[in-house]
Amino acid sequence: MATINPSINFNGNAEEAFNFYKSVFGGEFATVVRFKDMPGDMNNPLSATDGNKIMFITLPIGKNVLMGNDVPSFMGTVNENRSKIAIFAESTEEADKLFQGLSAGGAVEFPIADSPWGSYFGMFRDRYGIEWMVDFDPKYNGQI
What is the dihedral of CA 119, 124, 130, 134, to 10 degrees? Predict the structure, then answer.
């Protein structure tokens, strides 16, 4: 079966966001590449501030990888979308820990609690504008 790994675009704060995610999930970055580490493109030169921005960063989380990058200024800004990253926890304790950690400083849209459909579920937008759903359903034991 194929593995799906989310990739998130940021408007200059990918490193800050990924350090926050690392503080919640633990682990170490597998990859960190900055724009200044890449050969320049004469048609799209990087601004002085773009060089230190993240071109590609990865944080392994269990069997998955969270990926991200900053969008360099010559490409414009990231547009708002309503995509969500879904986390399927292996226990209510893990769900609570992830929900509380990732939602800190953000906006809770649906507090984590027993849901009408029988799982333990919560939904929020983190302090970086990324939307998350945390779910624990003992029928699936962390796997959907």
Answer: -20
- The C-alpha R_g of the chain, in whole angstroms, comes to 17
Closest CA to 84 of 71, 101, 97, 103: 103
User: Domain 7-73, what architecture?
Assistant: 2-Layer Sandwich (3.30)
CATH dotted code for 84-136? 3.10.180.10
Q: Between residues 13 and 77, which one has the greater pLDDT?
A: 13
For the residues 17-43, what does the mean pLDDT come to?
87
Regarding beta strands 7-10 and 64-70, do their DSSP bridges make them parallel or antiparallel, or are they unpaired?
parallel
Average pLDDT over residues 2-26: 91
